[in-house]
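Hi Prof. W.,

I finally got the N-acetyltransferase domain-containing protein prediction working! I wasn't sure whether to trim anything, so I left the full sequence exactly as given:
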Amino acid sequence: MSDVTVRRDDQAHRYEIRVDGALAGFTAYLDDADDRIFHHTEIDPAFGGRGLSGVLIGDALADVRASGMHVVAVCPLVAAYLTKHGEHQDIRRAVTSEALAEVKAVRG
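And this is what came out:
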């Protein structure tokens, strides 16, 4: 059985998922007041097909909830997860033009 861990890296502005210590993927975010804007999720193809994106996003959303923040899902994977998991609707905020502008500014 593999050891799977998720941790928040505030300096890199992302949550990382590791399998047996190896970086398997991440979901990147920006913070704006009390919103955490998720804008990109990536799982290394070598780790694909294991359901890791669901574990990663689920743990990230649990952390957002624990911090008292809300989530803005610019990332399609995070948006799809939120649609499938109604228990997180209370922390979901709509994607706004301001949120999209912030993401665009970071991505360049």
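The longest strand covers residues 22-32. Does that look reasonable to you?

Thanks,
D.
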